[in-house]
Amino acid sequence: MTDLAATADASDDRTVRSLVDRWFARRPAIALAALLPVGAVTPLFPVEIGVAVFALGTLVVGMAHGAVDHLVPLRAAAGGGEGPGVSLRRSVAAVSVVYAVLGGAVVVAFFLAPVAAFVGFVGLTWLHWGQGDVATLSIAGVDHLPTPVERTLTLVVRGGLPMAVPLVSHPEEYRLVAEWVVGLFVADASGTTGAPDAVGAEATIPTADVAAAALDPLFAPSTRFAVGAVMAGATLLSLGLGYRRVRAGADRRGWLRDAGETVVLWAWFLLAAPVFAIGVYFAAWHSLRHVGRLLLVDPDAVSDVTDGTGGVRAALARFARDAAPLTLGGFLVVGGVALAVPSNVGDAGDLLAVSLVAIAALTLPHVVVVAWLDGKQGVWRPGSFG
Ligand SMILES: CC1=C(/C=C/C(C)=C/C=C/C(C)=C/C=O)C(C)(C)CCC1
Ligand SMILES: [Fe+2]
Questions:
Q1: Binding site for Fe cation: what residues are annotated?
Q2: What does the domain layout of the chain look like in residue ranges?
Q3: Which residues are listed for Fe cation binding in this entry (predicted)?
């Protein structure tokens, strides 16, 4: 390739990245900021509203964002220009094995030790959602995070916002969800659900009681205070270090964007009711960003996006077609979990709990695929992004 062609290629690449960044990350972040007043009143609503929003978000984009994982090795290997290509068959086979083994292990873990599995799932989500935002900042080409240590700190902050801040701001609802999930796996002798309908209700069921008590340390004021302090400290450190980079010549706009997003997410998770807040975030933040990232490794989608009017819509339609079969597969996993758990699945809380366990089973293998993509794209390679 001539130098001129290479330069033109690089500038095309930057244009398409910036378009995708605008539609899948920056505009949704502005929309979330605009939604803050709505978020602020959600603690006044019944939790079922949050469950409905979570279910809708999962139905519309949440499940789909991982449903093209089987094509990721194929596309990333082809687009990366490094190493040998990967055939469709190998791509699908490798990802299916990873999903079957790791997803199965997660379900078994919930049966054997529901409290530990729940805590592990929150930790995994922390890692995964933080990993997702670091990848988005890399697509945006920010250059105030040149080292893996700074990126790790960003991961801790960004993943902790949805997972840790609600524990500090709205512990009752957080605990309710934890008990719903754990309660799925502790049926009482009559076979009805052992899950408490509200914190402390149905205290006559000993097994559910024991399970609920195991969650106590997580909600102790000292734990919540420590979690809040770690999150505040990590945020200040991360943004402070970034600012130092700006003083040393890094792009100020990239840092301002990072800081702005962090502030919006802090406000969102401090104010909004946890289930509602996480439902909106999962769909409109994490999933959309990941879909945008995947469009960039699909050459057909890239030419859709650069085609101008309706380009992003066409790329999304293409994504929806690719994702449709395994989105349905994901919902079958939800159904499978509902049938497998020992308790009856009767109300909105049980529906959320079953969905979360199914999502947990799908998330562990999804994280492996995304980590592979991160490696392939050099998201953690030292040096400036972009
Ligand atoms: C809803 C909810 C919770 C957990 C949500 C989780 C853990 C969701 C994970 C989703 C994933 C991993 C999606 C894939 O990318 C908490 C924090 C327990 C309590 C508050 C309400
Ligand atoms: Fe994801």
A1: 65, 128, 286, 290
A2: 16-377
A3: 65, 128, 286, 290
